[in-house]
Design goal:
8-stranded mixed beta sheet, BirA Bifunctional Protein, domain 2, 331 residues, binds biotinyl-5-AMP, 9 helices, SH3 type barrels, Arc Repressor Mutant, subunit A, 5-stranded antiparallel beta sheet
Length: 331
């Protein structure tokens, strides 16, 4: 569960990668001197990096050379590709953790700054709403959480999910070239199947949001083959586009998009997020079914209100608002 955190001193492995990525062959002795480590320490970290998939050539008399970088979301690689002021300026990267949302919660409670990003290659307890499980094998998909401290009243906390969904739709269009839609409250769909899910959690005091955790799982290169009984069919960007999409590009583009929108919403109000949400919504003017533990309603989606509640015109003609529930699209 060790994380590579970026603004508090970088992990020695990252320092080594930084040097290797800017040189041709470099001897163990020079590397050790430059980094202020012993040669056995350099050797140990190089061995670990090789195990993680980095192609590092070592030739006697010449030293080490970086030949191939695995698709690992190292903080340094992320930081090189973002032009944000806050989102992703502090990064924690986990090869394995329980859940980025769980980790983000304790960091946020300890005062982590807005924009802190937590990325995992694998989650042992990846979670959805109502303690449902989020499945994703190691290194295949994007699993991350962002800490926000918006100046919104607690009733508008749902707009964390709105911000993430709209930014994701824009990002996927830009990076993968496909159109995706939002299914209220927290799913992204492509070709009638679930492509991504968002889990927003928050802590409030009476009149403001203290912090908000926006957790996002995107199926890039893997989707659950068979949906569980209560679940919806799933898909991945690989299945939808026929080719592998760079997780790094997707994540960095998302951070740029999301910060931009977040700042705009901070200046102009969340109304602009609502408008964009409506544009991508799969439930507007569509027949849908919504259910909670006890009941099921059917109607036509009308949009969301200022607090993110789904407005439905029920089959009996009445208009009703829903703050929670699972929606199914009716075809
Ligand atoms: C969600 O919940 O869709 C929110 C998922 C959020 C996951 C991210 S990953 C990073 C961060 N850290 C976490 O621990 N969580 C967040 P919900 O709408 O409740 O959907 C959960 C349901 O989706 C499950 O019960 C399954 O039926 C289904 N499911 C699980 N894994 C899936 C996957 N990879 N793709 C599509 N559907 C999946």
């Amino acid at each position: 569960m060790k994380a590579l955190d970026h603004k508090t001193p970088p992990h020695p492995k990252e320092v080594i990668l930084g040097v290797l990525s800017q040189s041709d062959f470099i001897s163990g002795e020079v590397l050790a001197k430059q980094l202020g480590m012993t040669r056995p320490a350099v050797w140990k970290y190089i061995a670990q990096l090789k195990e993680e998939g980095f192609g590092i050539e070592s030739i006697q008399g010449r030293g080490y050379r970086l030949k191939a970088v695995p698709d690992i979301l190292y903080p340094d690689l992320i930081r090189q590709k973002i032009n944000t002021r806050r989102f992703g300026q502090k990064i924690f990267h986990f090869l394995r953790t329980d859940s980025t949302n769980i980790q983000a919660r304790s960091l946020a409670a300890d005062g982590a700054p807005e924009g802190t990003l937590l990325v995992a290659e694998y989650q042992e307890k990846g979670k959805g709403r109502l303690d449902r499980q989020w499945q994703s094998p190691s290194g295949k998909n994007l699993l991350f959480s962002l800490i926000l401290r918006p100046d919104w009243p607690p009733q508008q906390a749902f707009y964390g999910t709105v911000l993430a969904s709209v930014s994701l739709c824009r990002t996927i269009r830009e990076v993968a070239g496909i159109e995706v839609g939002i299914k209220w409250p927290n799913d992204l769909y492509s070709g009638g199947k679930k492509l991504a899910g968002i889990l927003t959690e928050f802590a409030t005091d009476p009149d403001r949001i203290e912090y908000m955790i926006v957790g996002i799982g995107i199926n890039c290169n893997w989707a659950p083959p068979k949906p569980p009984p209560e679940g919806q069919p799933a898909t991945s960007l690989l299945q939808e586009t026929g080719h592998k999409i760079s997780r790094l590009r997707l994540l960095t583009c998302f951070l740029n998009q999301a910060e931009n929108l977040y700042e705009k919403a901070g200046n102009e109000g969340v109304g602009l997020l609502k408008e964009e949400w409506n544009r991508y919504s799969l439930v507007i003017n569509r027949p849908v079914t919504i259910s909670n533990n006890q009941n099921t309603w059917t109607g036509i989606g009308q949009g969301i209100d200022d607090f993110g509640a789904l407005i439905l015109r029920l089959d009996n003609g009445q208009q009703e608002k829903f703050l929670a529930g699972d929606v199914r699209l009716r075809f």
